[in-house]
Design a protein that fits this description.
The protein is mostly helical. About 80% of the residues lie in helices and about 0% in strands. It has helices at about 10-20, 25-35, 40-70, 70-80, 85-120, 130-140, 145-160, 165-190, 195-205, 215-225, 235-240, 245-275, 285-295, 300-335, 340-360, 360-390, 395-400, 410-430. The longest helix has about 35 residues, at about 300-335. The structure holds 4-fluoro-L-phenylalanine (PFF). 4-fluoro-L-phenylalanine binds near residues 20 and 322.
Length: about 425
């Protein structure tokens, strides 16, 4: 065993991995996507994908990481020296981390700006039109988004530089419980508003007539992005997990927390949206324009707007940390850099790419589209196939039983990652490329 930094406790592992999974994808994207795609019916399909495909793929990543004790790039060199082809997965993973983090931290920068606006009570005196203009002006300008991008990347680097135990784990253990408390307070407030019932029904009433082939595919895509799987982020964290930890339990807990927070975000947002008679329309506007309007009409709006934007910053930060760690692990393992140098270099490169995303919306959209629609599904297929067909049953069994238990579910797991997951993901992948559907 080498002297690789490790997560010190089970709670630390789960907090850090759940921190990666819970992010902007949960808090504004999930509620909106669910609402648009049949509410409760979509939710049932999403749950099926999370637990039938998401958990097995996450478990595969944990196995790869813990077995190899390397970054996602180095992992395939160690585990598959004979199959050079699979090393492309490591390259794709590191590349995807760059692409996702550069646009993700631009949006995260907006959340920092809005937290500061909320703190200074500068959202409260605005009319709905002024709030819409504020968001349009801000997101279309150059210097302020770049400034907040740099601030956010600085925060991310400050956590990563501390290492696994004293950086990522330490902050996740504080920030994740805080996130849970904030979101529960927001849910209680939202549910207490008169007229909130419509919002709850909008979220959970299953409307099976809205389920089409495309809706099923959207649910699978959302499950992947939300769980942070398909590019080696979870594998990288897996390389810091001690042998005595139960990997199945980790994958199930993280997936459960991720789903819970997504649902709580829906419960925090939609009852309030409906209570104030606002259309539950899509995208960034929901969080940056619609919600400030709601806070302005709400008793205690100042407190709730500060709480909400702080929640977004925390969620984004614990996810961006995991993305930067993919790159830092690569730089330290493969290029022999010290953690500090690797963090600075990674953050610097991300900022440069992020600046391109701010200046050229086409780059922003291109990075977003390429990473989530192309690279994550491709990575997911290759990771499942690798663990299912190439890693070897004994090594898989060994990792699943290293904590001292018996993996009675081994057959089912292997069946899913050998056959079910690759086929299901391939369908999404081909659909996103416009080849089917
Ligand atoms: N899971 C994060 C979210 O839902 O916002 C996004 C993400 C983080 C995707 C890390 C991929 C990743 F590796």
């Amino acid at each position: 065993m080498n002297n690789r930094d490790v997560f010190s406790s089970k709670f630390g592992v789960i907090a850090a991995a759940a921190g990666s999974a819970v992010g902007l994808g949960n808090i504004w994207r999930f509620p909106y996507v669910l609402g648009e795609n049949g509410g409760g019916a979509f939710f049932l399909i999403y749950l099926l994908f999370i637990f039938a495909i998401g958990v097995p793929v996450m478990l595969s990543e944990l196995i790869i990481g813990r077995r190899a004790q390397k970054s996602i790039f180095g992992a395939f060199k160690v585990l598959a020296p004979k199959y050079g082809f699979f090393q492309s997965v490591g390259i794709i993973g590191v590349l995807t981390a760059f692409l996702i983090l550069s646009f993700y931290s631009v949006v995260a920068g907006w959340t920092v700006e809005y937290t500061i606006l909320a703190l200074g009570n500068n959202l409260a005196d605005k009319s709905p039109d002024q709030l819409a203009d504020l968001f349009a002006d801000f997101s279309n300008s150059i210097w302020r988004p770049i400034f907040y991008l740099i601030v956010f990347m600085g925060l991310t680097a400050a956590v990563v530089i501390g290492g696994i135990k004293n950086g990522i784990e330490k902050y996740a253990k504080i920030l994740m419980p805080l996130l849970l408390v904030i979101i529960i307070i927001l849910c209680l407030k939202s549910l207490s508003l008169s007229g909130s019932r419509e919002g709850v029904l909008f979220l959970f009433r299953p409307d099976f007539s809205k389920i089409t082939g495309n809706v099923v595919l959207v649910a699978l895509g959302q499950a992947f992005f939300s769980l942070s799987i398909g590019m080696g982020t979870i594998a990288t964290y897996g390389s810091y997990i001690k042998k005595k930890e139960n990997l199945l339990q980790t994958a199930v807990s993280v997936s459960f927390i991720d789903t819970l927070i997504a649902v709580l975000a829906g419960v925090a947002i939609f009852p309030a949206v409906f209570a104030f008679g606002i259309q539950p329309d899509a995208g960034p506007g929901l969080v940056f324009v619609t919600l400030p309007n709601i806070f302005n009409q709400m008793a205690g709006g100042y407190f709730f707007s500060v709480a909400f934007f702080t929640l977004l910053v925390i969620a984004a930060l614990t996810s961006s940390v995991s993305l930067l760690e993919v790159v830092v692990a690569y730089f330290t393992d493969e290029l022999g850099l010290k953690r500090k140098q690797a963090t600075f270099l990674g953050a610097f490169l991300m900022i440069v790419l992020g600046i391109f995303c701010v200046i050229y919306p086409k780059v922003f959209n291109g990075f977003e589209w390429t990473s989530s629609n192309l690279l994550l599904p491709l990575g997911g297929i290759l990771i499942s196939l690798f663990v299912g067909w190439f890693l070897g049953r004994n090594k898989v069994k060994d990792e699943l039983e290293a904590h001292g238990g018996k993996a009675i579910y081994l057959q089912v797991f292997l069946f899913i990652i050998k056959i079910v997951a690759p086929i299901a993901i391939a369908i999404v992948f081909l659909n996103n490329l416009g080849l089917i559907g």
